[in-house]
Amino acid sequence: MHKVTPNPPEPETDPKKLQEATDRALDYYLKPKQPTPEEKQPSSQLFTVVDGIDTESLLANLSENLASADAMVSDLAFDLKGSRRHIAFGIQQLIELSRLLANRMLDSINPQH
Fold first, then answer.
1. Where does this protein have compositionally biased stretches of type Basic and acidic residues (predicted)?
2. Structural domain total, the chain
3. Domain residues for 102?
4. What helix, strand, coil percent values describe the chain, rounded to 5?
5. Is the pLDDT of residue 54 over 80?
6. What is the pLDDT of residue 40?
7. Which of 58, 65, 66, 59 is nearest to 95 (CA)?
8. Is the dihedral of CA 61, 62, 63, 66 positive or negative?
9. Is residue 70 part of a domain?
10. Is 3 a member of any domain?
């Protein structure tokens, strides 16, 4: 049995519309939106922390950064002599105290039982 069906509509081949659609698609993927003026960071700010990061993650990263700084200053202090060595150990003590404070805050946010 033969069923009569209409032919599908012919695609629109207006070259101008086709070019506009192509340009929109390419611009969407290849030209990201520029931030609006109120979203731009000050030019003097080199680094920034992404908005929306939870406090626990921030404190955990702070603690890890302080541990790294502690290790670097400790290594440096053993290569120094005299008053420079005492200064390096003083810096190391401040870093360690800051790390203890960050860890205490981290424990109060996420108590580990």
1. 13-22
2. 1
3. 55-108
4. 60, 0, 40
5. yes
6. 62
7. 66
8. positive
9. yes
10. no
Report yes or no: 109 and 56 within 8 Å, Cβ to Cβ. yes
Determine phi and psi for 104, rounding to 5 degrees: -65, -40
Residue 1: is its pLDDT beyond 90? no
Alpha-carbon separation of residue 61 from 34, 53, 57, 82, 112 (angstroms): 29, 11, 6, 33, 17
Does residue 5 have a pLDDT over 90?
A: no
For residue 75, being part of any structural domain is answered with: yes
User: Which of the two residues, 106 and 2, has the higher pLDDT score?
Assistant: 106
pLDDT digits (tens, 9 = 90+) for 71-100: 999 999 989 999 999 999 999 999 999 989
Burial profile 19-51: b = 16 or more Cβ within 10 angstroms, e = fewer = eeeeeeeeeeeeeeeeeeeeeeeeeeeeeeeee
Q: How far is CA 79 from CA 52, 75, 85, in A?
A: 41, 7, 8
Which tokens go with 98?
């800051």
* Residue carrying structure tokens 């939106």: 33
